[in-house]
Write a structure and sequence with these properties.
The chain has 310 residues and is mainly β. The chain is 8% helix and 44% strand. It contains 1 helix and 26 strands. Strand 14 and strand 15 form a beta hairpin. The N terminus is likely disordered.
C-alpha cells in the first residue's frame, strides 16, 4: 500500500510537471525588433543603445495613448518581461502601474490593487510569469513587503513580510532559478548587506555584510548564476553567493551610473551619459570607455537590457 501511494504521488508530480511545460509553451511569444540592446525610457518615447554597434537611436512620441505617469521618472520600478516594459509606482503616481508594448507601441495604465504601491520599489522578473515587488517607500514609511504581479492575469498578490525593510533607488533585487530572491540592502553611509528570501518556504537568510566608513552602496547587477557585482562610492566588488566570498575588482571610472549585466558575452555596462558610458570585461577585470554617438549629457531615467535571455 505504501509503495502504491508513493507511485501515485510520483505520477501526480509528473502530470503537474507536464502541465507546467504545456502552460509555458502555450504562452504566446511577443515579437519585437530589439534583440541585443539597452533601452533608456524617456518622456513620450525611448532611446535604444545597440550592444553590437554602440550606437544610440531615439524613438520620439511612439506610445499611442496618453499616460498618467511619466516613464522617465527615476523613482519608478522598471522591469522588462516578455516583450513588455512594466513600471510600478513612483513618487508622483505611487498607486499606478503601466505596461508598454515594444511590438505595437501600445500602453496600458492601471491601478495597483490589493498590495502597496510606493516608490523606489525593488523589482525583478522570475523568467516565468511573476514580477516580484519588494520594499520601497509609501507615505514616508519604508516597506518590508514582498508582493508579486502576474503578467498573465495582471493581478497583484501579497507574498510575505521581510524582517527588515528594503529601500534602494537602483538595483538591489534579483531572481534566481532556484526559487530564491537575492537582496542587496544598503547601510547608512557604511556599505551593504546581502540576504536571500526563499520563495517556497519564505525563509530569510543573512549571507554577508560589507562595511566601510563613508563608502556608500550605489548600484549592482547579477549574472543570473552565482555572482552579484556591487558598486560603491569607493570600490567595485564581486560577491560569489555559493561561497559567500567578496572579491575586490577594478574600480569603475563612472560615479553613479546604472549597471546592467549582459549574459551573451559576460560584460557589464555602466550607462551614465555622453562620455560617461563604460563596459567591463568579467574575464579581464577591465573597464573601457565606450565610444558611442550619444548626445545626452546625463542619463538617469530607467533602463532595461533586452536580449534572448529575458
Amino acid at each position: 500500500m505504501k509503495d502504491e501511494i508513493i507511485k501515485l504521488n510520483d505520477a501526480k508530480d509528473k502530470i503537474k510537471s507536464c502541465l507546467g511545460i504545456i502552460e509555458k509553451v502555450q504562452r504566446p511569444a511577443v515579437q519585437h525588433s530589439f534583440k541585443h540592446d539597452i533601452i533608456n525610457l524617456l518622456d513620450k518615447g525611448y532611446c535604444v543603445f545597440s550592444l553590437d554597434t554602440f550606437k544610440w537611436k531615439p524613438y520620439q512620441n511612439v506610445f499611442q495613448n496618453v499616460l498618467s505617469m511619466r516613464v522617465d521618472n527615476p523613482t519608478l520600478s522598471t522591469v522588462y518581461a516578455r516583450g513588455h516594459i512594466y513600471q510600478f509606482g513612483g513618487d508622483f503616481t505611487p498607486t499606478r502601474y503601466i505596461r508598454l508594448s515594444l511590438a505595437d507601441k501600445s500602453c496600458y495604465d492601471g491601478k495597483i490593487v490589493g498590495v502597496n504601491g510606493g516608490y523606489y520599489i525593488s523589482s525583478c522578473f522570475d523568467g516565468d510569469k511573476y514580477i516580484y515587488l519588494v520594499g520601497g517607500i509609501m507615505d514616508y514609511k519604508r516597506l518590508n513587503r514582498v508582493d508579486r504581479f502576474n503578467i498573465d492575469t495582471h493581478q497583484f498578490e501579497h507574498v510575505c513580510q521581510l524582517q527588515t525593510p528594503l529601500v534602494n533607488d537602483k538595483g538591489g533585487l534579483h531572481c534566481h532559478k532556484n526559487n530564491k530572491l537575492y537582496m542587496v540592502n544598503k547601510l547608512n553611509d557604511s556599505g551593504y548587506q546581502v540576504k536571500t528570501f526563499d520563495l517556497l518556504t519564505h525563509a530569510q537568510v543573512f549571507l554577508l555584510e560589507v562595511t566601510s566608513n563613508g563608502s556608500q552602496y550605489q548600484n549592482d547587477c547579477f549574472d543570473g548564476i552565482d555572482n552579484i557585482y556591487i558598486k560603491t562610492s569607493s570600490a567595485f566588488h564581486r560577491i560569489t553567493l555559493s561561497s559567500k566570498q567578496k572579491t575586490i575588482l577594478a574600480k569603475c571610472p563612472a560615479s553613479n551610473n546604472n549597471l546592467l549585466y549582459d549574459p551573451t558575452l559576460g560584460r557589464i555596462f555602466s550607462i551614465g551619459g555622453k562620455n560617461d558610458n563604460y563596459q567591463y570585461s568579467v574575464q579581464n577585470d577591465k573597464w573601457v570607455l565606450i565610444k558611442d554617438n550619444g548626445r545626452m549629457k546625463t542619463r538617469v531615467a530607467p533602463f532595461c537590457l533586452l536580449s534572448s535571455y529575458n
